[in-house]
Fold:
Amino acid sequence: MHNFRLTFLAPLFFLGTCVSAQQATPNLAERLGYPADTKLLIVHADDLGVTHATNTASLAALEKGSVSSASVMANCPWLPEVAEWARANPEHDLGMHLVLTSEWRLLRWGSVAPADQVASLLDSSGYLKPLCDLMAENADPEEVEREIRAQIERARSLGLEPTHLDSHMGCLVYYPQFFARYLKVAREYGVPAMVSRHEILEIGPEWAQMMTPEDLVIDHIYTAGTPDYALGLDNYYRGVLAKLDPGVSVLLIHTALDGAESAGMAGGVEGWGNRWRQQDFNFFTSEDFLNILRDEKISLITWRELAQRWAARK
Amino acid sequence: MHNFRLTFLAPLFFLGTCVSAQQATPNLAERLGYPADTKLLIVHADDLGVTHATNTASLAALEKGSVSSASVMANCPWLPEVAEWARANPEHDLGMHLVLTSEWRLLRWGSVAPADQVASLLDSSGYLKPLCDLMAENADPEEVEREIRAQIERARSLGLEPTHLDSHMGCLVYYPQFFARYLKVAREYGVPAMVSRHEILEIGPEWAQMMTPEDLVIDHIYTAGTPDYALGLDNYYRGVLAKLDPGVSVLLIHTALDGAESAGMAGGVEGWGNRWRQQDFNFFTSEDFLNILRDEKISLITWRELAQRWAARK
Structure:
């Protein structure tokens, strides 16, 4: 069944509880020249490219402006639809949702790099494995790097110039040997890899030691988990927004229209399934959400804006 | 735009006009021991795997029994859904719709074989080319063979044992260098490659010379073209069924449910688009169609049944 590693790690790493040793460290907003109490938020839609229903909802939410950023899966069939939109809307913020897993039962995908050059990532049918842990058991870090480079290059070949990198299901973050490649590739392309200060501190010292002062590191990453879904996603999002710490945060969401295609993808799974994705779309395109942003004095920002400010800080 | 080679070739090769030299040749039904006036028909749904909407319609039509056979595209994301159904319904007739093109604008796919081993088939983004002619300009026949073997092996690895082979958009049929590979692979796997006697005769002597007496060759292949769509698919199908010659015929159709996913795939193209596919589903699951079969004394048959009779004829 659907057993995302993220599910288990989310309570530990993503809930943004303050680490006492960090209280004195200036948050990213301050380091970028904003007042210390500024709350900047990237509302980030994951999984573009996986289905037409994901693209339809996510591109509409980006156009509305209430979702500020999104990232694409280059291994998935509907990437060309996102790329066509990206070419027509180059001001929008699209990154690479780097893919090392193929987690659904009824639709699956393989690598972008030639299969024989990333064989350690693939199963006997040529598909990526369903879970990060299964991937990590055999994956050669060299092949991981080759695959993520190929994904970036496919998107670029279609005219989609990514503003940032992030990691589908967190596979590139939770294993030091892959995290090093994630950072290396991001630095070479001159774009941020999505990493949060609190996440890094809590995973372990080995992760923090891989970072350099040149790396743009946001303060918090929030994302709903299955217990939040059970209690109501609206409640979860309202809670996150009401208690948002100052600094730069990312709220990871998964917008898609419910319907036969999304239900087929989910294959009966509720967690990160079709109903969840429609609820994400509904909440983040609602007037209610915009009102909360205004009331809580939260400003939306993009990865492109962050990176430009970061480059200009010197 | 959508410029299938099949569109132009259909009037020449697929309409089943009798070739005078062939009048004396016994049709395949006779050769299999049926009375000479027997009309056997495979109603064949193409393109399974390409979308969830295609799978939903086509698997329902197979279960109803009014579509007798279908074939799958192993390069496409929803192959695992078809394979799951095939494992649960092994009595049904599923073949490989061998893929050398990726013809839609908004969703695309690459090879199943490692990209570096079939580089002559791929564009600079790693996708198959949109048209047979574009594919044929550069395709190395050795790489064509490698790719179609990889497609068959992916399906088999998922528990789908193909009953026959056919060719998406006809790419394997219309070029002698690829036709030879199509026949070679079918013979090795011991399954029929979809080829019709009239098609072969009309394409040219080179094609006929590649056939051996051991190859199972059906009499006619029918499929609607864009002019038929403009005049009404129902009219076309009624006409084909009313005038069906004795022997073994295949009627190629494309069943899918209309909706956002199918419309996204078609991208505004009418020919072989979403409306067409829904009309195919409607006609071939109607009582009307079953009544026509009865009135015209047409019996549905499968590739598996044909191959078994062919093997037993000696």
